[in-house]
Amino acid sequence: FYMDSLQNVIDLRETPFDFEKQSVITKDNVSIEIDAMLFYQITNPHDSVYEIANLPDAIEKLCKTSLRNVAGNLSLDECLTSRDQINAELLIIMDEATDPWGVKVSRVELKDITPPHDVQQAMEKQMRAERERRAVILTAEGEKKSMVLEAEGIREAQIRRAEGERQSAILVAEGDAQARLNIARAEGEAIQLVTESLSQTKSDPAQYLVAVRYLETLKEMTS
Q1: Residue 47: its pLDDT value, please?
Q2: What is the number of other CB atoms lying within 10 angstroms of the CB of residue 52?
Q3: pTM
Q4: 1 pLDDT higher than 60
Q5: If 0-12 CB within 10 Å is exposed, 13-18 middle and 19+ buried, where does residue 156 land?
């Protein structure tokens, strides 16, 4: 604390200053109410007493005026989405303006921004429509993903079925080829045995084989 020659006690600690809501007209001619507060600290007690009369009232009026100027240069949407920007601009303005009074403004905070009732209703309808639009988009995307997964499943099943059929055909073909090879090998061995047996009797193996074929064909014809 500091006590001047007039026996006034001055608090040198950081002090919060909360004032009533301020009506502000935005750049797009929308009347809004802004509830703000600031934190200041007296750094020069002498100047805070002798350079300004009624320091709290002067700080409040200066903040309200600065708030109207800053918010008046922004649209409603900008005011609602740029609180940090407004806080920063107000802090610079307030700190520079109160410096001759021996005051340091450390923070400025916008607590609430209240648009008119009809604007709030319109914003709520817009937000509700946006939520519904997002829900429709999410539903459509979910259905699209489901259809894509289903198509991929069908395609994968078709590929697997075609691969199974191809493998089956290969196995059948290999089995047929192996069977024919076995038959040919057996016939070759039979012919070799016949040839060896007939060589001892000096008979012609070709005539014997032709006769065998003739008998097989005749049997098929008679059946």
Answers
A1: 87
A2: 17
A3: 0.51
A4: no
A5: exposed
